[in-house]
Amino acid sequence: AIEIEVDQQQESVWISLLFSILPLLLLFGLFLFFLNAMQGGGSRVMQFGKAKAKQWNKDQPTVTFDDVAGCDEAVEELHEIKEFLQNPAKFQAIGAKIPKGVLLVGPPGTGKTLLARAVAGEAGAPFFSISGSDFVEMFVGVGASRVRDLFEQAKQNSPCIIFIDEIDAVGRQRGAGIGGGNDEREQTLNQLLTEMDGFEGNTGIIIIAATNRPDVLDSALLRPGRFDRQAIVDAPDIKGRLKILEVHARNKKIDSSVSLETIARRTPGFSGADLANLLNEAAILTARRRKECVTMLEIDDAVDRVIAGMEGTPLVDSKSKRLIAYHEVGHAIVGTLIKDHDPVQKVTLIPRGQAQGLTWFTPNEEQGLTTRSQLMARIAGAMGGRAAEEEVFGHAEVTTGAGGDLQQVTGMARQMVTRFGMSDLGPLSLEEQSGEVFLGSSLMTRSEYSEEIATKIDREVRILAEKGHEMARQIIRDHRIVIDRLVDLLIEKETIDGEEFRQIVAEYATIPEKEQFVPQL
After folding, report:
1. Alpha-carbon dihedral angle through residues 500, 268, 301, 320, given to the nearest 10 degrees
2. What is the three-state SS of 130-199?
3. Residue 448 appears among annotated catalytic residues
């Protein structure tokens, strides 16, 4: 007899097992793929708890303190940090300890990150850079894990510097707003507080952080022992702007007739980033006009473009153009004939941005404090456009062109009443300078004054605005002849500079002397 054995059952078991496991393997692989994609694509799945800090390589293009201008106080603070790292024995011999942290505070564009890059270029110590948002993650505990990993890396490379940009992303006040804060973010902040100055302590690690919102940071983060120093990186003054312009003009072809000092005077309130953008816009205009080097014409056009926007199509000669001309001349004539107002720089009918016409004034930036008469002069100057429309065309022809002016007037008058004590309500501060930061915080705090006081505030604001309006209307009525001449000239030329404007006004009226501070550069 022939015996035949067929082992089909064993084969079917393996096949069935394979078909049962294969979908699970595919699902697990798909899960890993999506998890990897959520973590930034190239990063490994099991390393999402690692810190994303980048260590500065000495081979990379470096920025030094020579490339930083306009913030001498902050540079001096960071120079000291560099000396601590390079020669710690000098300070330790006296008993001085290395500062644990420096917080750079200032408006956007003033050079906080640039300062940190300069420290990285100058310091011989390892330099780690990370953003506050790099700690924030959708998974619970990842932020705290990244903080721990960052400081572990730093301890292995001690002494070193850690730079945390935009620290307000992770360092906001705990428990703020309705229902408390985000628990995951608070855990990350708690871990950061512990690592900076906790039970173990970190020796040889200096933390430099940057923010433009110090008011929202947690008080535990700002205390000495965590951030021992706060360096203010504010908008530069005229000397600082001149130095910044010199730095950014190094690699640009600029005509010898261009005066950087004149540009510095024309740009009060500009940050370092604004000035860099200004020279770049001038260079772009030069290339577009097929010139070999930047001239003062391109600089002037770039200043106008940065402040007010792109130049629009010139207005067609019509009733609308004449009305806008009276509006702008009204601003300029009131600003010229009131003693405490800033001098006129230029009047133009060339549209820029949303504005159909513009009147430029040169503010006295070195003043620091503003008097009540100066604020009233600004209110009257802002009302000059509406006053000219009313006096020349009548109430029925008043336009919406004064909308921005009225908003500005209302804001100034309200501050005079509620913050500066410049009204009949007396020397009282009734409102905070800044608005609410956190959602719902205004619901938890009671009003700072009664409804009766609120009614009086509204009345005082209206009185100040009406007083400025009447001052402007009186000047328009008294100088109608010169206004008509200036309007005809403006319609013909489309732009009148401040010096020519004052020369024409001086033929008809006495211009009060303006107190203009001229610093020694």
Report:
1. -60
2. EEHHHHCCCCCCHHHHHHHHHHHHHHHCCCEEEEEECHHHCCECCCCCCCCCCHHHHHHHHHHHHHHCCC
3. no
Three-state DSSP state, 128: strand
Under a CB-based contact definition with an 8 Å cutoff, are residues 34 and 48 in contact?
A: no
What is the C-alpha R_g of the chain?
Answer: 32
Query: pLDDT for 97-134, tens place per residue?
Result: 778 888 999 888 888 888 888 887 777 777 888 888 77
**Number of Cβ within a 10 Å radius of residue 486:** 25
Picking from 166, 161, 154, the residue whose alpha carbon sits closest to that of residue 122 is 161
Q: Is 175 left (phi over 0), alpha (psi -120 to 50) or beta?
A: left
Helix then strand then coil, in percent of the chain rounded to 5, is 55, 10, 35
Task: Decide if pLDDT at 354 tops 50.
Answer: yes
Dihedral sign, CA of 290, 295, 299, 305? negative
Q: Among 183, 171, 181, 184, which Cα is nearest to 137's?
A: 184
Question: DSSP H helical segments within 338-371, as ranges?
Answer: none
pLDDT one-digit tens code per residue, 296-305? 888 888 888 8
Q: How many CA atoms lie less than 13 Å away from 90 in the CB half-sphere?
A: 8
Bridge-partner residues for 208, per DSSP? 102, 163
**Within 10 A of 219 (CB to CB), how many other CB atoms are there?**
8
Handedness of CA 36, 39, 40, 46 (dihedral sign): negative
Q: Are 296 and 287 in contact, with CB atoms under 8 Å apart? A: no
Which helix (H) or strand (E) segment holds residue 344: the answer is strand 344-348
What are the Cα distances from residue 334, in Å, to 2, 44, 308, 312, 361? Answer: 123, 67, 22, 26, 12
Query: Helix or strand or coil: residue 467?
Result: helix
Query: Which of 122, 137, 195, 328 is the catalytic position?
Result: 328
Q: What angle (nearest 5°) sits at the alpha carbon of residue 489, between those of residues 510 and 286?
A: 110
